[in-house]
From TrEMBL:
An MF annotation (GO) of this entry: oxidoreductase activity, acting on the CH-OH group of donors, NAD or NADP as acceptor
Pfam families referenced in this protein's UniProt entry, alphabetically: malic, Malic_M
Species: Micromonospora narathiwatensis
Stretches assigned to the Malic enzyme NAD-binding domain: 240-462
InterPro entries (UniProt xref): Aminoacid_DH-like_N_sf, Malate_Decarboxylase, Malic_N_dom, Malic_N_dom_sf, Malic_NAD-bd, Malic_NAD-bd_bact_type, NAD(P)-bd_dom_sf
Keyword set includes Hydrolase: no
Protein name: Malate dehydrogenase (Oxaloacetate-decarboxylating)
Keywords: Oxidoreductase
Domain Malic enzyme N-terminal: 95-228
Region (Disordered): 462-490
Length: 490
């Protein structure tokens, strides 16, 4: 059976099946599932008797429709009784994914008297006299608010706050697992910029940092800028900065693989929205040779009229040859393609027109801008945002360590110097002697990543003058309405 999407653990199902107790029955199941396009990942015998064997067959499918097709194929086999189908993703989310645990024992009156009244009153008075002590004596020192209004949930659009909660829970779980940071979802039942800013300012005393997530552009830019101005804790929009950090890290190693230098390459970026703009700004800061920004307006160039300020700035500071054609024409001869936009914009034939030893980062999720299997026929290095493909560019490589470093440094803001330091740290974890076309970023489970990023961010916070001055750009509040784009966040 031909399927357009790649099977993924995100659509993993477990099917409980009763089959006759003969030597060929279980083999028929796995063969049929494979022929239906599924990837069998486990087969467990649950029970048996002289006549039947009951098994749980677990497999990855491409989407919900494909899962139904696989089940139908198995149901139609002679002698097979499909008894139950479980969606493993939904099972994982039952009851939520995070909880609160006490760090102190409350077994005796003595312990209760110190953790709560009357002893706690002395701690309250100490903080009232010196508010900075809140970082030392409360959860503020290690707690981040993961804030969303549900207006741009993954690549799904405006689903609202309740539907955004599973993503924010997942983000909080990743913070804890990879950075030791206590994060909590704060989903807001408003999409008014002023209200969001007001609410976050009001809750900020409890937190050491704010992670903005899945808030639609252009409001996300203004919200971030206003909160940075108003608060004395770091405000970090992961859809922008986390993606940019990870892309720069991956590109650093990809260029090492192919033996090219950033100042010598031409990069095409599909998607001049939140992530794309942040990526391009960071590449420009690092001295990239040239960039062509492509969005719904086409290639941004000097000659387009009625551009919003951010796109006008991109048109004036990128695209040296003033290319004005389509995306396929832009990638012809380019050294690097970075997609943070929409699926299936390019084909393998388009990648074949790129420069020798081309690099392709197709990051739209779940379906990338070009089929990675086709891209690999022509590009030297290919990366996606998918966990089932080599070179997964995933924001979890960045944000836990970035916040760990900022919290440890008692940083009051997130800076571009921190972004550059974090990107270099991620790239260096791989090691120049270990990189190759299928390993340009470390695994998200590499225990070295978050500590390395945290150390780099702490150093950048303590010595910001160690990096060059930033490239000037328009104010965040001036950024335009933009196309919806993909994020490298899981």
């Amino acid at each position: 059976m031909a399927i357009s999407r790649l099977p993924s653990a995100g659509f993993s199902i477990t099917i409980r099946i009763a089959v006759p107790a003969d030597a060929s029955s279980i083999g028929r199941l796995t063969t049929a599932a494979g022929e239906a396009g599924a990837i069998v990942t486990a087969l467990d015998v649950v029970d048996s008797d002289p006549a039947y064997v009951i098994v749980d067959l677990t497999c990855d499918t491409a989407d919900a429709g494909h899962a139904d097709q696989v089940v139908k194929t198995l149901t139609e086999l002679d002698g097979v009784d499909v008894r139950k189908v479980s969606d493993r993703t939904f099972l994982l989310h039952l009851g939520g994914k995070i909880e609160v645990n006490s760090k102190v024992a409350l077994r005796t009156r003595d312990e209760l008297s110190r953790a709560y009244t009357p002893g706690v009153a002395r701690v309250c008075m100490a903080i009232a006299e010196n508010p900075a002590d809140a970082r030392r004596l409360t959860i503020k020192r290690n707690t981040v608010a993961v804030v969303s209004d549900g207006s741009a949930v993954l690549g799904l659009g405006n689903l609202g706050p309740a539907a955004s909660l599973p993503v924010m829970e997942g983000k909080a779980a990743l913070f804890k697992r990879f950075g030791g940071v206590d994060a909590w979802p704060v989903v807001l039942d408003t999409q008014d910029t002023d209200e969001i800013v007001s609410i976050v300012k009001a809750i900020a005393p409890a937190y050491g940092g704010i992670n903005l997530e899945d808030i639609a552009a252009p409001r996300c830019f203004e919200i971030e800028a206003r909160l940075r101005e108003a608060l004395d804790i770091p405000v970090f929009h992961d859809d922008q900065h986390g993606t940019a950090i990870c892309v720069l890290a991956a590109l650093t190693n990809a260029l090492r693989v192919v033996g090219k230098r950033l100042p010598d390459v031409r990069v095409v970026v599909s998607g001049a929205g939140a992530a794309g703009t942040a990526i391009m700004k960071l590449l420009l800061r690092q001295g990239v040779g040239d960039i062509i920004a492509y969005d719904r307006q086409g290639a941004l160039h000097r000659g387009l009229t009625d551009l919003n300020p951010a796109w006008q700035w991109l048109a004036e500071n990128t695209n040296k040859e003033n290319y004005a054609g389509d995306l396929r024409g832009a990638v012809a001869g380019a050294d690097v393609f970075i997609g943070v936009s929409a699926p299936n914009l390019l084909t393998g034939d388009d990648i074949a027109t790129m420069a020798k030893d081309a690099i392709v980062f197709a990051l739209a999720n779940p379906d990338p801008e070009v089929d990675p299997r086709e891209a690999r026929k022509y590009a030297a290095v290919v990366a996606t945002g998918r966990s089932d493909q080599p070179n997964q560019i995933n924001n979890v490589l960045a944000f836990p360590g970035v916040f760990r470093g900022m919290l440890d440094a008692h940083a009051e803001e997130f800076t571009e110097e921190m972004a550059l330091a974090a990107a270099q740290a991620i790239a260096d974890v791989v090691g120049e002697d270990k990189i190759n076309p299928t390993v340009i970023v470390p695994s998200v489970f590499d225990a070295r990543v978050a500590p390395a990023v945290a150390a780099a961010v702490r150093a950048a916070a303590q010595n910001p003058a160690a990096t060059p001055p930033p490239v000037a750009d328009p104010g965040p509040a001036d950024l335009p309405e933009i196309a919806a784009e993909a994020s490298a966040t899981p």
